[in-house]
Amino acid sequence: MAKEKKRNWFLGLTSRMFMLVSAGLLGLSYVSVFFNPAKAWGMTLFGLLYIPFFLLNVFLLAGSVLRGSKAALIPLVALLPSLLVFGRFFQFSSQGAEPGPDDIKIVSYNVGRFGMSSADSRSAAVDSVVRLLQAQDADVICLQEFFIEDAGQIRSFFRKHFKGYDLEYYVYPTDKGSYGNVTLSRFPLRAKGKLDFEESSNLAIYGDYILKGTPVRIYNCHFQSYNISLPRVAQVFKGDYKEVFRDTEQRMKTSITLRPRQVDMVLRNIDDCPTAALVAGDFNDNPLSYTYWRLSRGRKDTFMEAGKGFGATYSFFRPFLRIDYILFPDVLRAVSHSVLHVPYSDHYPIVTILSPNHEENH
After folding, report:
1. 39: number of Cβ within 10 Å
2. What 3 state SS string does 327-345 have?
3. In 80-202, where does DSSP find H-type helix?
4. DSSP code for 189
5. Strands 140-148 and 177-185: what pairing?
6. What is the pTM of this model?
7. Which of 230, 232, 221, 341 is nearest to 284 (CA)?
8. Where are the beta strands (DSSP E) in the chain?
9. Which of 234, 272, 321, 347 is most exposed by smallest CB count within 10 Å?
10. 172: Cβ–Cβ under 8 A, 6 or more apart, which residues?
11. Which of 11, 12, 25, 38 is nearest to 261 (CA)?
12. Strand ranges (DSSP E) for 43-139?
């Protein structure tokens, strides 16, 4: 009997210690958004792992309740703050505004240089993306990682496939082709610019437009990627794990520390912007991150305002990883938000309909 009591005591203590550690990890996920990754890059990893930590605590809570254990209080307390943040990942119902005659349709899509597709060739992948975008019939299209072999053919390419759009773009030429950001708009482009990120081939471009009577600057951003090769990671299973881990760690550290500097550059430009600012693109960060927290201040998230279900935009970790966004100012309202699950890139395009907020404009 004494041995049984000792065993139960040990199991109970071990279980509670595991619950406390799990609760602590989830707690670090919550507060990770307040740490500048340039100074504490490791904190970003806790934000990235929010969903696994959340699910672990849900599992521990359910198990404790079924056993009738008072220790259920530990994961319960840890999960309470999720009432405030889980909506960034999942929306139970769409609460968008009513559609109207002044609706503005916007698409943001990282096309991944047309390198991942069920099509047989890059040209076939390009055709698939073009048909998709033409079918959307959007007023504004923001593309990241657009690729073309000859940069001199960009204008003729878009004149051919997207008549009636003003074009803004910047691409980096390489010996294997050119890639960068492209913004297409049916509203006349009044002014434009680009932000070159230091030590990076990523960038942001912006343009000033009058959207159905509302002046707005649209930022098309592609923040620092992790540049982690899945085939490279797969080499772990071939015994090359030490080198792979070192390489992956360095790539993640570089990406995580560069992004806040890129975000600060965009925010400084927004501070000098004479109009309201809409920020769209591939942030390469989840909604529980320093990047999202900084950029969403003073702006609303189309997914949170008008989305439904999981908002994941990265195909390899669907349905958990949302890294593409459209953040809009108060002069606009969100009518709808959707994610198109098409196989033409490692990202999914996001489509939103916005409408002028006449109350805010007056």
Report:
1. 9
2. EECCCEEEEEEEECCCCCC
3. 82-85, 122-136, 154-161
4. P
5. antiparallel
6. 0.90
7. 221
8. 90-91, 104-110, 140-148, 166-174, 177-185, 191-196, 203-211, 214-222, 276-282, 300-301, 309-310, 324-328, 332-339, 350-356
9. 272
10. 178, 179, 180, 201
11. 38
12. 90-91, 104-110
Question: What is the pLDDT tens value at each position of the chain, 362 positions in all?
Answer: 555 555 566 677 888 999 999 999 999 999 999 998 888 888 888 998 999 999 999 999 999 999 889 899 999 999 999 999 999 999 987 777 778 889 999 999 999 998 765 545 788 889 999 999 999 999 999 999 999 999 999 999 999 999 999 999 999 988 889 999 999 999 999 999 999 998 888 999 999 999 999 999 999 999 998 765 444 444 444 555 566 567 667 778 888 889 999 999 999 999 999 999 999 999 999 999 999 999 999 999 999 999 999 999 998 877 788 999 999 999 999 999 999 999 999 999 999 999 998 776 65
Residue 111 tokens read as: 């096309």
Chain center to CA of 215? 25
Report in angstroms the alpha-carbon separations of 157 from 152, 154, 166, 168, 220. 10, 5, 13, 13, 20
Rounded CA gap, 262 and 224, in Å? 8
Question: Residue 324 and residue 306: Cα distance in Å, rounded?
Answer: 15
User: What's the residue count for the chain?
Assistant: 362
Q: How far is CA 354 from CA 106, 212, 335, in A?
A: 8, 10, 5
